[in-house]
Amino acid sequence: MAHQNPGLNILEIGAGTGGATLPILQSLGGGEAGSTPRFGHYTYTDISPGFFEKAKAKFEKWGHLMTYSTLDVSTDPTGQGFCNGTYDVVVACNVLHATSDISQTMSNISALLKPGGKILLIEETVPKARHFPFVLLPGWWLANDKFRNDGPLLTVEGWSNVMMENGFSGVDLCVEEYPGASFQSGCLMTSTAKSPVTGPANPGDVVILGIDPLGSVSSLSLEAGLRNMTGVDPITAMDSDEVDVTGKWCIFLGGMDRSILSHLTQEKFQTLQRLLSRARGLLWVVRHSKTDLESLGANMAIGLARTVRSETGLQFATLDLGEREAMSDAEAVRHMLNVFNGVFCQTSQLTQNDWEFVVRNGNVCVPRLIDNNALNLSVQQETPDAPPQLQPFKQDRALRLAAGDGRGLDELYFTDDVSRNGALAEDHIEIQVHSTGLNFRDVLMAMGQLQGERLGQECSGIVTQVGAAVSDFKIGDRVCAMSPGSLSTFTRCPASGSWAIPDDMPFEVAASIPAVFCTAYYSLIDLGRLTKDESILIHAAAGGVGQAAIIIAQSVGANIFATVGSVEKKAFLMETYQLKEEHIFFSRDMSFVQGIQHATGGEGVDVALNSLSGDALQATFECVAAFGRFIELGKRDITTNSRLEMAHFNKNISFASVDLGIVREKRPQLTKRLLRDSFKLFVDTNAQSRWSVTTLPISDVEVGFRALQGGQVIGKMVVQVTDDSMVKVHPARRDENLLRADASYMIVGGTSGIGLDIASWLPEKGAKNIILVSRSGAKTETAEQTIQDLIRQGINVEVCRCDVADKQSVEQNLVPLLARMPPARGVVYGAMVLRDTLFEKLSFADYHTVMMPRVHGIWNLQRALTTTNGSVDFFVSLSSAASFVGNIGQSPYAASGTFMSALAQYPETAKMHCSTIDLPIVRGIGYLSDDQKREAIAKQLGTESVDGTEIRGLVTAAIRNEFDLSCGGHCVVGFEGVKSTPVNEQPFWVTDTKLSHLLRLSTLAGAGELTESAQNGTEIPPAVAVRQCKAREGAEAIVGIAVLNKISSILMRPMEDLDPAAPITVYGLDSLVAIEIRNWITRELEANLQILEILTSESIPALAETILKKSGILTSDLKAEWGLDVVEGRTGQE
């Protein structure tokens, strides 16, 4: 029932402690994150409210889907606040027997159910000795029915009789506790609430079309069955032109033994148009032969029916009887009558919107689209956007740290390190990384504020490879290095940027030295020329570079002045490096200028090592003495091209900037000397005894970056690879040699769009021979360029100009090519033509043009392959989601698409491993990307779009035969996004029961049934929660809490410590933190804000309002409440 109607309204009677409730809810889903419930609402009742408090706690996970009410079912429910005819299912577990009048009870339940609704009844049906204690209680003898004189229990037969007398069908299903009558005690029974017959009842209402005069279908049996159902004789005819079908209910049997839609003449096509425009309702019956591939064309009726229903609302049902060899005519007639009765006579509301029926294993089934998590994961693993998974850092493949597209520190993940694929350069060494030093430069790159993707600038580890020209190192040496990209498993760098480390030096200490000590040494000694008794100002002195500079300055006997950002850091410098308290200032404001001037008698310092920016940089210039040296380490003013006050240079001041990356890249010998001198000084001064290193496991690299971002680090921070390190890793791509080098692979429609994109990708999977089939050949510049690129890779490419819909063209052009090429082992079939028109206005020529390449083309190609090849490893058909939903104006396209999906499930094509992919809109490539008008029409599909990488992932899964294992060869793509579609934006197929369960979340949103997590915006995406809001205040609250939660996470401060009413400046956000918040707002809330708008917001609610006014997630109702309108594609205020 839940499969058929995922919006079930369920009532449980006498639920008590919920013993039956729990397994029902667990089966129906909705209690866990990401689990879509297959029911709409669950009403939990009992005669006493005493059970409800514990039940609410027990079923808390389903709380947003449940209500609790008292109900005495033995009396009229309408007088207790219940409405008749509103429930799909009533559940009663060992409770109904306890009512005094069982007939009245069942009558009350029947009234509560919708027509066709079900009762699920669990009852004791056989008296047992264990019942004896209850005999002594008054409740055992409450029954006043004449047929329950000996106690309250009824046999199965007794229950069936009571049901039939009170609006039910009797016992439809009985599941016994144990096999064997002697063991029986109770059972589970189901029954159906009777429905009035509302279908055909007038003479001449029913017409049977397509009757074979030879009687291959038992037409007499069908006629007799319809006569019994309606009380009148049906009209029979071979053709709808032989009888007036206007306003009549029709059963069409013309597709029973042949594929008429694939072989229509113009006259028959026009007859079909008249039938579908005049009939009141139509049941089209199809079946096929297991030995005749072309008989699958009968399934085109399913796609045609979908589109005609979308265009006209015609009650157009289809019944697929399956293989004709597996079913007798009598059985076929029985199924026809049952479906006709259920659809057109409205005997059950559970089948109101079901129009597609398939007989499988003797049962009539209906289709539903379901999530395929295994296939989704497989496809994601083939795309760059695959979500990272928690995996061990140590594994067979080499990994490197990468930043996510959103440029947030919470998006860091590890992925394959392709830099290790090539040969090692002759002057390089390769190092297996043990520890990596973290630098502020890495934070800037991770957030997109500095160019570069290679995170990690320095490391230590063991040499694993040595270039041919390297003599200083050998495999197994312990080394440290300046090596961009060293947040990785292995790193490669010039030998000149590496240094052997002492055996007694820990890897984490060695990894902390190269960047900061070489920077400080180059700045103070090479550029600053710092000497004894000179003075130096060191900004951010408690950091890594700052402490290195202190150690170097003390080694030459200089007088040291320092700035820090906190009292704790000041105390650290005084205790660790014995700096004078009066020589340490704070850099949060400009007061350090006065402090320096006072301490130096107004002269200033000889050397300033600056890492401040903006006004603080200009202020530092005022602290430099005549003939002084200003050494700039920061990047912000340089990248923004800020100005310097030139008047300072009147004092013979020199200015220099330091970027150790440029030194490493452009001056390898200088780099080597800096490493040598830095390590010598580090050892000679016993710096390790004072050197502050904070070590984190590599799994906490985000924590380290956030600490650097927030200025919370004293000294140097290093991440260390440990045996148990678990990190977020992009799934490994598989099957690099999925395809055979000694085979050919064919793409039909391969010289343009999706086909050409797939052709360019096949060599990545091992293909060496590619056949591109196209009606027009490779005419475009893009096609020619792609083919030349393939040839340069050593790929044998053959372009076959051939119309696969034309059998003669296939025999003349393609068959000879197949004969001389290596055996064809796989096909990707993407041939298509579009002619979008409503079916009633569609010309036969356009119908034929669209249908031929997708139906006859496949028949012709499979015959050619059978003749020349025998079989193939895969045959992947690229179809469209338009076929699945019946897109308006695309009837022949949808019809041919359902033929393609039937092909994937056809037993005789199993040896070709046929599979079909129903694609939504494709971004950037393909037919739609070349025609904006067609794209606008296709958007009414209401699906998400996919790109080329996702299509490649789908094709890869199909080649691996994963479709066969998980979805019967047929995969439908792009409908996940409709789960969060607002009610007022739902697509045209909203009532299609194949898909209606996907709209469960948006249905809840329309009803305003928000869970607590949706209200506070923390457990579900805030955009989803906002779309569920009906009022402006609710949307502002959701966004405000989400923003506050994000700020709390970034600052690593409890939310309780943040005052939402305070100005944003109170939180102490710097521009880097604001950038991350802005990027998060853009990604999660679809609003583009300036940094200044964030930093100058008066409060969290004010910021939330600003975000929402610029956001693309507002519903039309909320836009109206704010006075917003859509102007030239953007949201603006009137």
Automatic annotation (TrEMBL):
GO terms for molecular function: acyltransferase activity; oxidoreductase activity; phosphopantetheine binding. GO terms for biological process: lactone biosynthetic process; secondary metabolite biosynthetic process. CDD domains: AdoMet_MTases, enoyl_red. Transmembrane segments: none annotated. Keywords: Acyltransferase, Multifunctional enzyme, NADP, Phosphopantetheine, Phosphoprotein, Transferase. InterPro entries: ACP-like_sf (IPR036736), ADH-like_C (IPR013149), ADH-like_N (IPR013154), ER (IPR020843), GroES-like_sf (IPR011032), KR_dom (IPR057326), Methyltransf_12 (IPR013217), NAD(P)-bd_dom_sf (IPR036291). Gene3D superfamilies: ACP-like, Medium-chain alcohol dehydrogenases, catalytic domain, NAD(P)-binding Rossmann-like Domain, Vaccinia Virus protein VP39. Residues 1034-1111 form the Carrier domain. Pfam families: ACP_SdgA_C, ADH_N, ADH_zinc_N, KR, Methyltransf_12, NAD-bd_HRPKS_sdrA. The keyword NADP applies. PROSITE patterns: CARRIER. This is Carrier domain-containing protein. It comes from Penicillium nordicum.
